[in-house]
Structure formats: C-alpha cells, structure tokens
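Lab notebook, bench 4. Continuing the backlog of folding jobs that were queued last week. Each job is logged with the same field layout so the records can be merged later without manual cleanup. Today's entry covers Dynein axonemal intermediate chain 1, a 736-residue chain. Filled in by technician R.K.

JOB TYPE: sequence-to-structure
TARGET: Dynein axonemal intermediate chain 1
LENGTH: 736
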Amino acid sequence: RCHRYQCQLPAAGCERGKELERSRRRFGARGTAGAAAMPPKVPARSPQSQIGPAVKPVQSRIPKSISRKRDEDASTEVGEGADEWTLSKTLLKPPDQLELTEAELKEEVTRILTANNPHAPQNIVRYSFKERAYKPISFVDQLAIHFSLDGNLLLRDSDEGRRQSARIGLEPDLAPVASTVIEVEETEVKEEGSKEDIPAASAEEAAEGEEPPSHSMKEQKLTNQFNFCERASQTFNNPVRERACQMEPPPRATFSATANQWEIYDAYVEELHKLEKSKEKEKQKPLVAKKEDKLRGRKLTSLESQSDDVTKVTKAAKIVERMVNQNTFDDIAQDFKYFEDPADEYRDQEGTLLPLWKFQYDKAKRLAVTAICWNPKYKDLFAVGHGSYDFMKQSRGMLLLYTMKNPSFPEYIFSSESGIMCLDIHNDHPYLLVVGYYDGNVAIYNLKKSHSQPGYKSSAKSGKHTDPVWQVKWQKDDLDNNLNFFSISSDGRIVSWTLVKNELVHSDVIRLSVEGTTLEGPEGLQLQTIGCGTSFDFHKKIDSLFLIGTEEGKIYKCSKSYSSQFLDTFDAHHMAVDAVSWNPYHMKVFISCSSDWTVKIWDHTIKTPMFIFDLNSAVGDVAWAPYSSTIFAAVTTDGKAHVFDLSINKYEAICSQPVVAKKKNKITHVQFNPIYPIIIIGDDRGHVTCLKLSPNLRKMPKEKKGQEIQKGPEVEIAKLDKLLNLVREPANKPAK
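JOB STATUS: finished
OUTPUT FIELD FOLLOWS
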C-alpha cells in the first residue's frame, strides 16, 4: 500500500506512489532501508476510520532526518508534475529577446488576416506574343494545397475486390483472441502486486521485463481509413478549372530595313508627288464646292495621311457610336420593340401615338422638312430633304439620311446651294436617290460614292425646270435598261428623265394648261394659261396611268401614251392639291389632300369623291398605311396628326394628337414604315419625330373559333369595296 500520501490504493496503481518509489531509488539504500523497516499495515476496523489509525504509528517510527528528506524530494517531484498550480510562475527569458521600452510595449499593433498566400510567388512572367517579350502576370494564384490523396474504387465482383472482402471477413474472428490475451496479462500483473508487498517500481520492472507470448497468428492488416469503398461514402469531385489561357500567336511581320540617304530622298520625293496630286484635285473641284467652303470659312487643306488614319477607324467608330446610342436611348428602344398601350382595351375604338425618337441636325435647324422617304431595302433607314416653302426666304438645302440605330447623328449628309423640295429612292438600287431643287434642277446622288456632290445633275442646257420641282418619282427602266424617273414642276411640265451614257436626257410628257382661260394676244395669237403641277403619283399596276394634282385644285388622270390631252379631270379642291396617292391594295381608289382643310377619297371611275373629311386646318400631307386598305394618316399645319380607319369610323379620325409643341411650328410630311408599326413626321423647324401606333390604330381581324383568318390583298380589297358600296350611288354600283 502507498503509505506516503495516506491512500488505500496499491503502490503499483497510484501515480504519486510511483513518483515516491522513483525518488527512493535515487537515494539508494537509505530509502530502501527506511521502506524495509516499515511494519505491516493494520487492517481497518470501519470505513470512516481507515485513514487516521493506520498511518500514525508508521509516521512515529520513521526517523526525522529521513522523513524531512522525503518531504523535500516529494515537493520537488510534485513541483515538476501534478501540482504546478500551487507554485508561483517564473518567466523564462530567451536569450535573443528584444529589449523594448514601456512605450513600445504599450503600442498596439493591428494585424489584418487576409486570404493571400504570403509564400506565393509575385514575379511570375509569361511570354507575350503581341509584344514579343516576357511580361509579368497581374494575378497570382493564392491557393495552397495542404493535403492531396488520389483514391481508387474497386468493383465488388472483381478479383481484387473479392480478395479484400475475404481479408475483411477474417477481422471479426481475430479480434476476440487478441483481446483475451491482453486481459490475461493485466490480471497476472495485478495478482502479483497484491500477493507480495513489493514497491510499485519493482512491479513495473517485472511487467516491463515480461514479454508477451508470441502467437502463431498473422498480423492484422490495418484498414485504410481513406478507402471510400470500405467507409461506404463518396464525395463529388469538382472539375478542375484553370484561369489562365493560351491564345494563338497573332500574325507577325518583320519591319526592318537599312535606311540610307537615297531611300530618305526617295521618300521625300514621293511625298512631294502626293502633295502635287492633291493640289491638282483641288483645282478640278467645281466652283460650287469652293463657294461652299468659303461660306463656311473652311480652309482647303489636304493631308492624305490624316484622312487615311480617319478612314481606317470609320467603321469601328460608327459601330461604337451606335452601341453608345443604344445604351443612351435604351428605354425608347424597349418601347419601340415591346410596349403596347394597355389603355386601348378601355378606349372605344380609339388609339394613340407614342413618341419615340426625335431626329435633328444642328445645321438643318432653320430649314423645313420638305420630303421624307423610307429606304425600300433597309427598313430602319430613311431620307429627309430640307429646304424652305417660303419663296422670300430661300437659301441652301440639305439631304440627310437617318437610321433608327443612331438617332443622334445622320448617317449621310449632303448639302446644296438650292433648297431640296422632293426626293425618291430607287426600289431596285436603294443607294440611288433622286432629288428636285427649288431652282428647277434635278440630281441623282449615289450613296456608294464618298464625295458630297451629286453624281448627275441637270442644267439649263439639258432642259431643267424653270420653277421649283415639287415631286420626283423613279420609274421602271426603259427598253435599253437605262435609269428613268419623272418630275413635276410649277412651270406646267411633266418631264421624263433618262440616264444615258452618264448624262441626263429629258423629254416632256405633258404640258399642263388651264381650260377656258385662252387669251388673245397681239396679232391674234392665242395665249393659253399654263397649269401649275404640285404633285403626282403613278398607278401600282398600270405603268402608263398616273394622277396629277395642280395649284388650281384640279386632279388630272393622264397616260404616258397621250401627251396632248387628259384622260379625265376631277374638280377636287378649292385650293392647291398638296398630295395625291393611289391605294396600295385597291386599284381604283386614290386619296388627295389640300390646303382647303379637306382630305378626299376617290374612285377614279367616278367624278365625285367617295369620302370627304374636314380637318379644320390646311392639310400638308397624306399617306396610306402599308398593312391595311382602310387606314391612312394626315398631318395639318396646326401641329396635329390624324389617323383614320374607315372600317371602324367613316366620319371621324380614331386618333387626333398634337405632335409638335410650339404653335408656330407646322407639320409638313408624314410617312408609314413599310414593316414596323411606326410613322415619321417632319415639321418646318427641321425636326423629324418618330411615333409608334397603338394597337387600336393597327387592329387586325379577330380570330373566330373554328375559322381561320383570311389575309392578303383580296381581303383588303373586299373590305374597302364593302365600304365604297355603301356610299356609291345606285347608278354607279358595279353589276354583280
């Protein structure tokens, strides 16, 4: 038993007893003798009195010197081990510690933990094929891998899987045998310690000296704790992704040469030749261009190197400009594409116009919009002619082409000395534009060519008009495949122009005259008053048939085959006819508008109008919708746009909406887009406004259950015929 610490545990099982025995062995025989002189212990009488009576006689028999020595040894041993909390702590100072002052010790040092790897290399370089040199990379991989293990899976039915399963099956049989052997050894050691009253150290030595019996069994294989097959769990391994990428090397060329005096001299001579050629080109420019440049105060300088640099980035700059504008006007583009006015469901067959983009150019602010025309091929591109309707304020003119992809700036800009009054774009060649000027000339612009002057232009020698040209129209090529167009002017001539061998050749088709106004001149000469043509339009199917509107308010039906007389005359309006247009579906119907505030719809076989609409202001222009035979739009000088649908309301417009804000501003022209549900409207301040038609303004027939919607020109013709039959007189109705 352990007598030093007054406990009843065996000496071999008490930790403090073990420490005491070690100290005794250090001091040799004295400690051993003291231990041998100890008498056997007295058995305890009761559980409460086990401690006191059993120990007191033992303490009295031990010499004082030996007990004092034991106490010192025990205190040192205890200080080294179990009761460290009872002793005062002593600070150990390393030899290389810094000597800091009180201020340095009190200073607070803030450290921020980051996810950056301090051992990651910062000087990695990669080869740049573009610059042909090694360049340091900007990013550093901060990932640190602490453990990596490649595992493998085996099929249970495979040979290796069966072997492992057989090995695993032996483990339950081997485990009980090993545990029993260990338990037997422990019990033997305990029995020896209890039978013989020996110190704990001798028991330990005996236990250490005894070797466990050798077994003939095989050593067990330690199972792999990371084997997924045995642990019956498997995780999903994420695919490895690399942030670095390798590009194909860009094409390279070596620009190296030895420069000598002769090469330098040749380069200077070549530059001088370029300058001389540019001066010759300047001399060959027409006088018109020089006058324009003088008016603008521009100096004629030709630096081909600079122009070359600009042309190289023209296409890229245009794309970037469109991207910037698309971001700037993103809300308008979204409305153009997707917005449908939900309020139309609650309106009684009425609609609205939603303003979208507004196209304007600073140099065309004081010029009125005199003509508008959509491009037949590129549906987002349209041309605008600028001039002036006031004959007292005639100055210059401009031809601008805008696209809805870039509302802030025109795609093409052409300027002229005289105001442009009309224009038209060729159906088969969408890059050819014909314009009519206020001074009576006509010209053809080619958008493929970069210069700002027209490719072909009439002159006084080639038969130009003596009054403003109010309208021009492309026609089909003649028998020799020469380009052909018609023009009408206030001088009473309708002229056919043909482009023959890069020259404009004219031929008068009809000369207008006012009937019943023949005057007698000197010597009995008969003087006939000339009629003033303002507008005309060609039939969609019959090429030779066309209509002419005049300042006197009459409309003439004419043919190219007859130059001396009219096929029919309509007393249409009391003032000048501003526009006349055939219906795109019905071959007998046309529309006209006038400054006498009215819009009239006609059947060319009947002398009286079918419909008359009074808009309470002078009507500047009228246009049929391309998607319906009964819808048309008209604009008036009071700044309003009117949209009619005869199939819904035969008496009033289903939409009358102000488009321009200022009272002094007047609307001049209107055109429907051939595909999109939008219209463009021009005013006399040089602005062009794009508006979207609400669903009620482009209503299509509703689907009925079990019936398919019939679409096509025949349906539109029948729809308009049904309306015309309601207003035709019984004598004029066609026989069925």
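OBSERVATION: The first strand starts at residue 125 and ends at 128.
SIGNED: R.K.
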